[in-house]
Structure formats: C-alpha cells, structure tokens
Design goal:
The chain has 394 residues and is α/β, with parallel strands linked by helices. The protein has 2 domains: 168 residues, Phosphoglycerate kinase, N-terminal domain (Rossmann fold), CATH 3.40.50.1260; 203 residues, Phosphoglycerate kinase, N-terminal domain (Rossmann fold). It is built from 14 helices and 15 strands. The strands form 3 sheets. Strands 3-4-2-1-5-6 form a 6-stranded parallel β-sheet, sandwiched between helices. The protein has a 6-stranded parallel β-sheet with strand order 9-8-7-13-14-15, sandwiched between helices. Strand 3, helix 3 and strand 4 form a beta-alpha-beta unit. It is elongated and about 65 Å long. The N and C termini lie close together (7 Å).
Length: 394
C-alpha cells in the first residue's frame, strides 16, 4: 500500500504530529546559521496550519547523546520558525513528559508547538517502546517530512507510527521519494554517477548497485585513493584504506565485466596536509612519498566535465577533495559548475558537501533536485527500503 500524503489526510481540529528534520547548524551566538532544512518543511507546516490542525513538531538537533544539553536546545529553531510563520511557536521543555503533554493539550486549532530535542532522551535512537508510546500519545495524525532521517529506525520515525492509524508523508518527503525513484527506473542515457567522499565501505553498496544501471561512474575524494592504490598507484601519504583494497579490486573487476566505465582521477593536487596554503599538481599514479592527495587536478576536471557534457541523467554524492579547505575546493566546485551545464537532463545532488558546493558555485537553481538527506539518498539510490518510508506504508 502506497503511503498517503498530508494532502489526503483529515487535519481539522486534530493533533498533527509532524516529524521534521530541523538538525540545522547554529551560530556561536546561538542562532540558526543555515535554515534550508526549516524552509523546506514550511509548505507542509503551513498546509497543516491553514487546515486548522493543532501542529506538534518534533526533531533532533546535533548529538546530545541521550541527555539534555543546552547547546542543542530547539530554542533557536523555535524562534526562527515563529518569525518565518508569523505566529507564536511554543517550545516544550522536554521531548516527552508532563511538560510536553501540557503544551500539546493547550494547543488550539492552527496553533504550533515544537517538542524539545528528541535526542535528549536515549529512547529516541534506541527506538524504545515506552518513548514511542509517549510520542504517539500526542498524535491523532502522524506526518513524516524528515527525509534526512528516513533511513533511521528511531522512535519518532518508526516506533510511534504503529500506534497512529492516520499517517502520511509531508510534501518534502513526497518530493524526495518521487525524484529519487526516477533514478531507479528507466532513465535518459547516458546515466553518470559521481561518487566522492572518504570511505569505501560507506559507499561500496551504492557503487555495486550502480553497475547495473549507470553507464559511467566517476570516483573522487579520498575514496578514489584506495581504488588508485588497488590499481598499483603510489599514493604517498594520501589517505588509503589498505584493508579495503580487495573490495576495491573486486569492484573494478565487476565494473569491467559489466561494461561500466569507471573514471578515476588522472591527476591530483597534493600537499603536506590540508592546512597547506596551496598544492602541487602531480600524476595520479605518482604521489610523492611526503605528499597527500587532497583534490583532483585539471586533467581530471576536464575529463569529468567532458563526460557530464554528454550525460542526460546524473547523480552526485560526495566531494572530489578536501572541499572545506579553499586551496583544495577547485575540483568539487568545477564538478558543480559542470553539472549545471547538463542541458535537458535530470541532475540530482545529495550529501552535505555536494549540496554546499552547488550553492557556493551559484548553480543551485540549475540542479533538477537537491536532496535534503545525504545518507538517506544514498540508501534510497542503492535500492534499500528506508524504515521511515516503510512505516508509512504499513
């Protein structure tokens, strides 16, 4: 049974529990520094308000490790949200308990409350039965609009859902599922995947799933070092997962047998470490013993750009280098700009650094879909069933 959307649910006068992803970065002064995730859920929240719902919002923020920590309070989020909505947003002083119960019970039609950080209790990540029941007691209707946590089987994404008969997706969740589903079916070709980041193990499942679907896979970031090493390259002081070399070799053999083109960097920008003020371009097979690979070089950028120029469908996850250090951001920025030149095709970007890159490059408006969930989008594209979505279908 397909999950309903919030547009199909009766909300008038009901307590509508909306699981949102307001895990946003904060400023040193305690304000919201990037409100993208909040803004993305505003259509869902506004829809509920306009239909006379009593809106109960819930999210996690940071990693408080199961105990209350003031620096991870939802207070800055509540303040931002109140301004964005143009109405009061009441913050409960706890995620569950007498205080939260009073805040929820005092809501009137069209009112909005937000529970304190769900991860202030270990019951959230443990998917604890008692905590799940406590959260479900605040809901006549359950809506999940937190795609970024849909791959986690937590109390607020899975545990409580079985106790609420009326449930569905928010508009953000619905849009994510529809856009990413397009990459799992018949797509316009060539279909190119650009996969960067650090760890092979984190993405080998995704890479293997792409062998049956993609025409070409471009590898970058520290992860590419391991694949280069597996082919016999000298990587100097570069980050290489030596224990994953057999996995890398096996993948490259599968790709060759499948006829999928694997593009590894031709050249690299190297330096002593990421704190260096500049780097030097060297061949990808000959990194000096006292240097580490920190970005892809100009030849690699040109090759990836050329492949993208011919692509009709592209999925990008993960930076090409140490993107957070300005001297080693060029490769990632160049990929972002090349992605924007894919004309008449579908381009999907997921993952924090990749998303940051398209914004920094000023090309976000040219991307077909920018996913709000890095890990969730990876598992979705890999073909895994996300627990948060599966719970809405039962």
């Amino acid at each position: 049974m397909a999950a309903k959307t919030i547009a199909e649910l009766d909300l008038q006068g009901r307590r509508v529990f909306i699981r949102v992803d307001f895990n946003v970065p904060l400023t040193p002064a305690g304000g919201v520094s990037d409100a993208t995730r909040i803004r993305e859920s505003l259509p869902t929240i506004t829809h509920a308000i306009e239909r006379g719902a009593r809106v109960v919002l819930a999210s996690h923020l940071g990693r408080p490790k199961g105990r209350p920590r003031p620096e991870f309070s939802m207070l800055p989020v509540a303040a931002y949200l109140a301004e964005a909505l143009g109405q009061d947003v009441v913050l409960a002083d706890e995620p569950a308990g007498d205080g939260a119960k009073k805040v929820v019970n005092d809501l009137r039609d069209g009112g909005v409350a937000i529970l304190e950080n769900l991860r202030f209790t270990p019951g959230e990540e443990a998917n604890d039965e008692n905590f799940s029941r406590a959260l479900a007691a605040y809901a006549d209707v359950y809506v999940n609009d937190a795609f970024g946590t849909a791959h986690r089987a937590h109390a607020s994404t899975v545990g409580m859902v079985k106790y609420v008969s009326n449930k569905g997706m928010g508009f953000l969740m619905d849009r994510e599922a529809k856009m990413l589903s397009k990459l799992l079916g018949e797509v316009a070709r060539p279909f190119v995947a650009i996969i960067g980041g650090a760890k092979v193990l984190d993405k080998i499942g995704l890479l293997e799933s792409l062998l049956g679907r993609a025409d070409a896979v471009c590898l970058g970031g520290a992860m590419a070092n391991t694949f280069l090493c597996a082919k016999g390259a000298s990587m100097g002081r570069s980050l290489v997962e030596s224990s994953k070399l057999p996995i890398a070799r096996a993948f490259l053999a599968k790709a060759e047998a499948s006829g999928v083109q694997i593009l590894l960097p031709r050249d690299l920008v190297v330096a002593e470490d990421a704190k260096a003020l500049a780097g030097t371009v060297v061949s990808a097979t000959q990194v000096p013993d006292d240097r580490a690979a920190l970005d892809i070089g100009p030849e690699s950028i040109a090759e990836v750009s050329g492949v993208l120029a011919r692509a009709r469908t592209v999925f990008w996850n993960g930076p090409m280098g140490v993107f957070e250090a300005q001297p080693f951001a060029a490769g990632t920025i160049a990929v972002a700009k090349a992605l924007a030149q894919v004309m008449g095709g579908t381009t999907v970007v997921g993952g924090g650094d990749s998303v940051a890159a398209v914004h920094r490059a000023g090309v976000a408006s040219s991307i077909t879909h920018i996913s709000t969930g890095g890990g969730a989008s990876l598992e979705f594209i890999e073909g895994k069933k996300l627990p948060g979505l599966a719970a809405l279908e039962s």
